Predict the structure.
Amino acid sequence: MLTETQRTTLAAFADLVIPPDDAPGGTDAGAVAFVEDLLTHELAPRAAEYAAFLDTLAAGNLTLSPELESTPIFRLAAETIHEAYWTSAAGQQAVGFTVGG
């Protein structure tokens, strides 16, 4: 679905939204695969818009502006990164949540 450039941009964006520090960032938490899955299922109607957003980010070297950050697609993209992180094992471990322990 996404091009290699779009995947690379998505990974960089994921780490802008959830930067790696003492816990994994958005990319290490599996955000790229998570978002790609959403784009082929639940977000399929918005997949082209999401891909265009990634192209815009890539063209601007991931430079964020208040105008871009105020767009609905930016908010959707940031929300999908957060959803990817907090539903991942890394995100859950970051807040001390364990399953079956």
The two ends are 37 Å apart (CA to CA).
